[in-house]
Write a structure and sequence with these properties.
alpha/beta, five-stranded parallel beta sheet, 9 helices
Length: about 190
């Protein structure tokens, strides 16, 4: 009897879907729609998403009330590759479904120290969903392509048990250093 491969879960940040869509001729996004100017880097993100979509052992993390998909829909249309890739995961039941609690303002509820570190309120839904997947026993990473905010809160996320998978680590570090020229980041 063949041994089953373990499920890997990813909470895919919207920026991954946008950058991948910008590399797809069928999507409305173009190079100027993302901060990733190099076509080869956009293609690298596209290739990651394409491999993720095709691998049945790699599941998307989404919440049952569609708050994460709501974030996707703010930026993507039904014709964009990023949206289609996530819908294919749903169609094939390759999703870890989790619950996300929201406060009265519609922001995900996180413990206070972590909430203070996540300054982008929309990102809190992503973090809450990824943490819920971890709490349910799934190996989960938060996947990022171009958002330097994830570097800013990396230590707080790590303390909470969540790692960020940066698809363009060198590009992202250089961009972060340009935004924070006076801060020296420990490796």
């Amino acid at each position: 009897m063949a041994e089953a491969r373990a499920v890997q879960a990813r909470l895919v940040d919207t920026n991954v879907l946008i950058v991948a869509s910008a590399a797809d001729d069928g999507s409305r996004f173009r190079a100027e729609a993302t901060p990733v100017e190099e076509a080869a880097l956009r293609q690298q993100v596209f290739d990651w998403l394409e491999a993720f979509e095709a691998d049945s052992t790699r599941h998307a993390v989404l919440d049952v009330d569609w708050h994460v998909c709501g974030e996707y829909r703010h930026k993507l249309t039904e014709q964009d590759y990023g949206w289609l890739a996530m819908m294919h995961k749903i169609d094939r039941n390759e999703v870890v479904w989790v619950g996300v609690a929201l406060d009265a303002d519609g922001n995900a509820v996180l413990e206070p120290t972590l909430a203070a570190a996540i300054t982008d309120l929309a990102d809190r839904k992503m973090v809450a969903a990824a943490l819920a997947a971890l709490a349910a026993g799934h190996a989960c990473l938060l996947t990022n392509a171009s958002d330097t905010d994830w570097i800013d809160c990396e230590q707080a996320l790590r303390t909470a048990g969540l790692e960020v998978e940066n698809l363009l680590p060198d590009w992202l570090q250089a961009r972060w250093r340009r935004k924070h020229p006076r801060i020296r980041r420990a490796k």
